[in-house]
Amino acid sequence: MKKSIPDHNKHCQRNVMLDLGASINVMPSSIYKSLNFGDLEHTVMIIQLANRSVVQPLGILEDVLVQVNELIFPIDFYVLDMEDETCGKGSSLILG
Q: Which of 62, 71, 89, 90 has a Cα-to-Cα distance from 28 of 20 to 30 A?
């Protein structure tokens, strides 16, 4: 499902996976670095992934405006130290 994340001077198109069973929004660190959205908020949260491994987020990127059709929502993303392995296909972000 294609969704867009408005940037300050440009409009980025990203593929997004909607996971209604998750309770957090996830962004790979590679996407976070490419967007230049500023500093992350500190967090001590530990996340258990679907494969039962645990990771600690690099931080929280707060109030990112995400456009879904004509509606715009402020979303907080947990940024994980992982590469975006989609290579133009699949999902880059998880909205939960």
A: 71
Predicted confidence (pLDDT) per residue in 72-86, tens digit? 989 999 999 876 565
Of 68, 80, 63, which Cα lies nearest the Cα of 13? 68
CA dihedral sign of residues 37, 35, 76, 64: positive
Q: What's the CATH number where 7 sits?
A: 2.40.70.10
Q: How far apart are CA 70 and CA 33, in angstroms?
A: 26
Query: Between the CA of residue 8 and those of 20, 25, 27, what are the distances in Å?
Result: 28, 21, 18
CB-count exposure of residue 61 (10 Å: 0-12, 13-18, 19+): buried
pTM of the model: 0.69
Q: Please state the domain count of the chain.
A: 1
Whole domain around residue 72: which residue ranges? 2-95
pLDDT of residue 35: 85
